[in-house]
Amino acid sequence: MVVVTGRPPRWVDALGLGGVAHELVLCANGALVYDVNARRVVAARVIEEDAARAVLLGIRAAVPGAAFAGEDPGGIRHERAHRYPSPDRTDRDVGGIDDVVRGGVAKLLVRHPTLDFRTLVARVTDAVGDRALVTWSSDGLVEISAPGVTKAAALADLAADHGLRADDAVAFGDMPNDVPMLRWAGHAVAVANAHPDALAVADEVTASNDDDGVALVLERLFDHAS
């Protein structure tokens, strides 16, 4: 069992997964491979500083009023206008774009105080083009990774390290940032209250997360295996 999440390592620590999860958790939509027991990042695919700066400058020109933040293994650096919760107080209020991207970032985050979210996603996607990969997992927050960085790519690499293929994998998801992983897995499961993009690529729709949808599938699979 492997946890694959858009959340950064600090959120994984806050969930208390150490000792119960596979020792490696794929964080930041696959950009960071995190050893949850040792509490250290063991691999990273970041957006390099110059590339990240170019991406944010392009977005600012196309979407005036957008506010930015950057995730790195040490926490989050954000402009004053970009408010973001941090469970362990690792957020750092910085001056501007140069400070957000300094040293490279695992993931860029974009908010806008007034723009409709679907409009924001569309404008950011157009502004970024093929220079980075745009996705999202919650209304109001656009997430940007380096080209080719997805949950699917990170999970495929980890599976290969264990001699496993996509056909061996069952993946659960609910949001647009899960879509590449759901497409990759041999059997893709979406919960009933998932985003339409996730439901559209699922091989199976289980009950909602509130009704233990993931547990119902796992119980069926393990009963079958026994």
Q: How would you describe what is shown here?
A:
This protein has 226 residues and is an alpha/beta fold. The protein is built from 8 helices and 12 strands. A 6-stranded mixed beta sheet has the order 6-5-4-7-9-8. It has a 3-stranded antiparallel beta sheet with strand order 1-2-3, with helices on one face. A 3-stranded parallel beta sheet has the order 10-11-12. Helix 2 (49-62) crosses helix 4 (117-128). The longest helix has 14 residues, at 49-62. The two termini are 17 Å apart.
Determine Rg (CA atoms, Å): 18 Å
Report how far the terminal alpha carbons are from each other. Answer: 17 Å
* DSSP helix fraction: 25-40%
Low-confidence segments, given as residue ranges, are 87-91
Structural class: alpha/beta
Rough outline: globular
Q: What does the average pLDDT come to?
A: 91
Instruction: Give the helix tally.
Output: 8
Tally of DSSP β-strands: 12
Give the strand content.
15-25%
- Biggest sheet features: 6 strands, mixed
Please give the order of strands in the largest beta sheet: 6-5-4-7-9-8
Taken in chain order, the helices and strands follow as HEEEHEEEHEHEEHEHEHEH
What's the quick description here?
With 226 residues, the protein is an alpha/beta fold. Helix content is 33%, strand content 25%. The strands form 3 sheets. The protein has a 6-stranded mixed sheet with strand order 6-5-4-7-9-8. The chain has a 3-stranded antiparallel sheet with strand order 1-2-3, with helices on one face.
Topology:
Blueprint: H1 9-15, E1 24-27, E2 32-35, E3 40-44, H2 49-62, E4 67-72, E5 75-79, E6 91-94, H3 97-101, E7 107-111, H4 117-128, E8 133-138, E9 141-145, H5 151-161, E10 170-173, H6 179-184, E11 187-191, H7 196-201, E12 204-206, H8 213-225
Parallel strand pairs: 5-6, 10-11, 11-12
Antiparallel strand pairs: 1-2, 2-3, 4-5, 4-7, 7-9, 8-9
Helix pairs in contact: 2-4
